[in-house]
Write a structure and sequence with these properties.
Radius of gyration: 46 Å
Shape: elongated
Distance between the termini: 102 Å
Oligomer: single chain
Number of helices: 19
Helix content: 25-40%
Length: 793
C-alpha cells in the first residue's frame, strides 16, 4: 500500500498474515517489540509466536482488537494490545490480516501539551487528534465507539492509515497533510465502511488544525459526522429529478415502461417489472377500479443480472394474476403492497405459481414491492420492485421513492397511450382516405409512398391519380396544415372535392380556384371566420398522352422535379400561386410538352425539408436520387426515401408520387371533321366501321356506330360549327369524342311516351361504360367510353 505522507514505521509494530496464518510481512517495529528479525519469521506460521490460545473471531469478521500473549525471542511472554483488520491482498489475490500495535506515544500528554488539551472527550461528536506525524494522540468516547476501538490509551500512537484501514484512508491522509501544511481547516466527504459496519456509509470529515500558544500547527483535530441519511435523501432527490428527464422521452408506451425499469435498476431494486392492463378488455379505456383475477401484459423489465434470468414472462406475454399475488392485491387495493418472503406474505400465491416459487428460491429473492401505475384516475398497470442482492428490505423511504417515480412514469405512459390511440385512429382514417392502389392508365405508370410523422402524428398529406376522359390523367399532391385526426379529416374532404372537380374536367387553375373557395368555407366553419384555422397547399397536373402535353398549376406547393429521358433531373418552373384558404387570389397554369418516358416527381415539403436541412438542400438530394432511376419506379421511390429520410423518423409527414409518362401512338387516334349536314351522318358511320376493322375492333362496331350516330346527330342539330369526331383506343377502352363550338352542355332526361326525341343520350348512357362532357376554351366536347374485350379463340 503506497503512502502519501512519510512516517516512522518503526514506531508501530506491524505484521501481515495470509488467510492460512502464514506471516508475509514483518517490519522493524515488530522486530523491536518481539526481537525476531524478519528473515526468521516471514513465511512461517504466526501461531509459533503465541504465548497463549489464539483469539476466536466471529464468522465473517473484518476487524478485531484485544490483548494477546506473544512470545519474545528471549523466551519471555508479553501481553500486547493488537488491532487486526482484514484487507484485500495485492492484485485481488485473497484477503490478508494486518496486525498493528503502537510502540511510542503511549505516555500521557504533558499538562501544557496542546494536543492533550484539544478534545472535548465527552462530546457526542466523534473527535480524534493526530500529531504532525499523523499518529493518534487522543480520541473521545464517540470516536472510539464509532471505530470499534477502546478509548483507554492503547490505540495512542497508531498512524491514521492504520486506524482507518479502508482504501479511503490514504485519501483522508492527504487531506490531513494539507491541513498541517496550510493551517486551514478542510471538509472531506467520503463513502466508506467504519468499525464493524457491514455496508459503506457516507461521512463528513471536518479537519481542523491544532495550534500551540505560539500559533504553530502541532496537529489536526478530526470531527466525523455520519451523513448517510442526508446522502440517501440527496440520492433519492437526484433519482426523482433524473426520472423527470429520462422517463417519457418518446410517445411510445413500451419504451416509456422500459424507461421506468431502467431508472430503478439498480438505484432502487435488483429486478423491476412493468405490467400493463389491456384496455380492450375494458371497452377500450383502462378502468378506474380493477377486480381479480386480472390479466396483465409484460411491457418491460430489467435486472442487475445479464439476460434478466429472474423473469418468468417475456415482454409482450400475458399472465392472469389471482387474488393474493402482489400485482392483483396492489391493483385491487389501489395502493402499494410490500411483501417479505421471510414473513410468508405471499406464500399462498407462490404455492399456486410454482414457476415463480422456483425463481424466488433460486435467486434468493427476499423482498418485493408492487406499486400501481395510475394516472388521471385510471389504472394502467403495476410496477413490481424486487430485491435479492441487496440484503435489506424495502424501507418506508424506498416506498415513497418508488411511488413518486412510478406516478411520474404513469402520466407519461398515459400520454403515450392516448397519443398511440389517437395516432392509430388517425392512421386508420388516413389509410381509408388515401388510395390503396394507383389506377393503371394508358397515360402513365405511377408509384407512391407515404410516411406519417414520427412524433407529431398523422398529418394531412395526400396524393392521387385520377383517370380523366380521353385517356388523360390527373395527378395531385396536397398538404393540409396541422396533424392529427382533424388534419386527416380535412384532407379527406379536400381529396373528395378534387376528385369531384376533376370529374367535371376543370382546368388546373380553375380547379384550384374552386378548391380555394372550399378551404375558405371550411376555415369559417372551423374557427372564428379567420382563414388561419384551416390551410393547405396543392399541386394539380393533367397529362394528355395523345398530345403529350402536361398542364400544371400549384397553390403554394413545392414545384415538381422532372427527369427527361436521357437527361438530368431539374425543378419544373410552375407559377407558385397562393396557398389554399387565402381567398380571392388568382392561380396560373403552365403547359409543358413531355417526351415519352419522362419521370415526374410530385412530393410534399415533409420529404425535402427537415431540421437538419432546408428545402433547397432537400431538393438537391431528391434530384441526385432521381438521377439514378433505372426503370423501376418502386425502386426509385425506395431510393429517394433512403436518401432523404434514412432513419424513417420524420418530423413532418411526407408524401411522394412518381409518374412515368407514356405516349399514345398516332395510329390509335382517328379524327374526322363533320359537315353541318345530317345526310352525311351515314357516310361517317361507315368510315368509323372501316377504322374499327383496321384496328381489329370489329366486335365493337355495332355499339360504336350507334353512339357515333347519336352524338354526331346531336352536334349537327344543336351545336355550332366546326364539329369534330375523334376515336381513341388503348388495350381496354374505346373512346368516342364529338366537339363543337356551342358551350351549352346537353342533359340526360327521360323522354315521355309520345315524345319524338330526347332518347339519344339515354341510349348512349345505356350502351357505354361511362359518358360525360367537358368544356374547353372554345365550346365543349361530349365523350363516351366503351369497354373492349379480347376475342375468344
Amino acid at each position: 500500500m503506497s503512502r502519501v505522507y512519510p512516517f516512522d514505521e518503526a514506531a508501530t509494530a506491524r505484521a501481515v498474515l495470509d488467510d492460512d496464518g502464514t506471516l508475509v510481512e514483518w517490519n522493524e517495529g515488530a522486530r523491536r517489540l518481539l526481537g525476531h528479525p524478519a528473515d526468521a519469521v516471514v513465511g512461517r506460521p504466526a501461531a509459533r509466536l503465541l504465548a497463549g490460545p489464539a483469539p476466536r473471531l466471529p464468522a465473517g469478521a473484518r476487524r478485531w482488537h484485544g490483548t494477546l500473549g506473544l512470545r519474545h525471542r528471549d523466551g519471555r511472554s508479553l501481553e500486547v494490545w493488537l488491532l487486526a483488520q482484514r484487507l484485500p491482498g495485492p492484485d485481488g489475490a485473497g484477503d490478508r490480516w494486518v496486525l498493528v500495535t503502537p510502540l511510542t506515544g503511549t505516555e500521557p500528554p504533558a499538562e501544557d501539551d496542546p494536543l492533550g488539551e484539544a478534545g472535548l472527550v465527552q462530546s457526542p461528536c466523534a473527535l480524534a487528534v493526530y500529531d504532525e506525524d499523523l499518529r493518534l494522540r487522543r480520541m473521545n468516547d464517540a470516536m472510539a465507539t464509532l471505530c470499534g476501538l477502546p478509548e483507554d490509551g492503547r490505540t495512542r500512537g497508531l498512524h491514521f492509515t492504520e486506524v482507518v484501514g479502508e482504501p479511503q484512508g490514504e485519501e483522508l491522509a492527504r487531506g490531513i497533510h494539507e491541513v498541517l501544511e496550510s493551517g486551514r481547516p478542510r471538509d472531506v466527504r467520503t463513502f466508506m465502511r467504519v468499525g464493524g459496519a457491514q455496508r459503506p456509509q457516507a461521512w463528513l470529515v471536518r479537519m481542523t488544525p491544532v495550534k500551540d500558544r505560539a500559533g504553530r500547527v502541532r496537529g489536526v483535530c478530526l470531527a466525523v459526522h455520519d451523513v448517510s441519511e442526508n446522502h440517501r435523501a440527496r440520492q433519492r432527490l437526484q433519482l426523482v429529478n433524473e426520472a423527470s428527464v429520462r422517463i417519457g422521452t418518446t410517445l411510445d408506451v413500451t419504451r416509456t415502461a422500459q424507461e421506468l425499469a431502467d431508472m430503478c435498476v439498480p438505484a432502487l431494486a435488483d429486478f423491476v417489472t412493468v405490467d400493463l392492463l389491456d384496455p380492450e378488455e375494458y371497452g377500450g379505456e383502462p378502468p378506474a377500479r380493477v377486480t381479480t383475477p386480472v390479466t396483465l401484459r409484460r411491457a418491460a423489465h430489467l435486472s442487475v443480472l445479464d439476460g434478466v434470468p429472474e423473469a418468468v414472462l417475456k415482454p409482450g406475454q400475458n399472465e392472469r394474476y389471482p387474488a393474493g399475488s402482489p400485482q392483483a392485491d396492489a391493483l385491487t387495493a389501489g395502493r402499494t403492497i410490500t411483501a417479505s418472503m421471510a414473513a410468508g406474505d405471499i406464500n399462498p400465491w407462490l404455492n399456486w405459481n410454482s414457476a415463480r416459487a422456483r425463481q424466488v428460491r433460486s435467486f434468493g429473492i427476499h423482498s418485493t414491492m408492487a406499486v400501481p401505475v395510475r394516472a388521471r384516475g385510471l389504472t394502467l398497470g403495476v410496477a413490481v420492485f424486487t430485491r435479492h442482492r441487496r440484503p435489506e428490505g424495502f424501507a418506508p423511504d424506498d416506498r415513497l421513492l418508488a411511488e413518486e417515480i412510478t406516478n411520474r412514469a404513469a402520466v407519461c405512459i398515459d400520454n403515450a397511450r392516448r397519443y398511440s390511440r389517437e395516432r392509430e385512429t388517425a392512421l386508420a382514417l388516413q389509410r381509408s382516405l388515401l388510395p390503396r392502389t394507383l389506377p393503371r392508365t394508358a397515360a402513365l405508370e405511377a408509384s407512391s409512398r407515404y410516411l406519417p410523422a414520427a412524433r407529431a402524428g398523422v398529418g394531412g398529406d395526400w396524393f392521387d391519380v385520377i383517370p380523366l376522359s380521353g385517356l388523360r390523367v390527373a395527378m395531385v399532391v396536397g398538404d393540409v396544415v396541422g396533424h392529427g385526426i382533424q388534419a386527416s379529416a380535412t384532407m379527406g374532404r379536400l381529396r373528395t372535392a378534387v376528385r369531384t372537380l376533376a370529374d367535371i374536367d376543370l382546368a388546373p387553375d380553375e380547379l384550384l380556384t374552386h378548391l380555394d373557395d372550399l378551404v375558405v368555407r371550411l376555415a369559417e366553419e372551423a374557427g372564428d371566420g379567420s382563414t388561419g384555422e384551416v390551410g393547405a397547399t396543392c399541386l394539380y397536373a393533367v397529362y394528355d398522352p395523345v398530345s403529350r402535353c402536361c398542364t400544371l398549376a400549384r397553390a403554394g406547393h413545392p414545384p415538381p422535379v422532372l427527369l427527361p429521358p436521357g437527361g438530368r433531373p431539374h425543378q419544373l418552373e410552375v407559377p407558385a400561386g397562393p396557398p389554399l384558404g387565402l381567398g380571392g387570389l388568382p392561380f396560373e397554369s403552365t403547359e409543358v410538352e413531355l417526351a415519352e418516358g419522362t419521370v415526374l416527381a410530385l412530393y410534399t415539403d415533409g420529404l425535402v425539408k427537415c431540421r437538419a436541412r432546408d428545402a433547397d438542400a432537400g431538393r438537391g438530394l431528391l434530384c441526385r436520387a432521381l438521377e439514378a432511376y433505372a426503370g423501376s419506379l418502386d425502386a426509385c421511390c425506395d431510393r429517394i426515401l433512403h436518401a432523404l429520410l434514412p432513419s424513417g423518423n420524420v418530423s413532418d409527414d411526407a408524401a411522394l408520387l412518381l409518374a412515368r409518362t407514356q405516349g399514345l401512338p398516332a395510329s390509335q387516334v382517328a379524327t374526322w371533321d363533320i359537315p353541318a349536314d345530317p345526310a352525311l351522318v351515314a357516310p361517317i358511320r361507315k368510315q368509323v366501321v372501316e377504322q374499327l376493322d383496321a384496328w381489329g375492333l370489329s366486335e365493337a362496331a355495332f355499339t360504336t356506330e350507334l353512339v357515333v350516330s347519336e352524338l354526331v346527330t346531336n352536334a349537327i342539330r344543336y351545336g355550332a360549327h366546326p364539329i369534330r369526331l375523334r376515336l381513341i383506343h388503348d388495350a381496354a377502352t374505346l373512346i368516342c369524342e364529338v366537339s363543337d363550338n356551342n358551350p351549352t352542355a346537353p342533359h340526360l332526361r327521360r323522354a315521355k311516351t309520345f315524345d319524338e326525341g330526347g332518347r339519344g343520350l339515354l341510349l348512349v348512357a345505356q350502351l357505354t361504360q361511362r359518358w360525360g362532357s367537358r368544356h374547353g376554351s372554345n365550346g365543349k366536347t361530349i365523350w363516351a367510353e366503351l369497354p373492349l374485350y379480347e376475342e375468344e379463340q
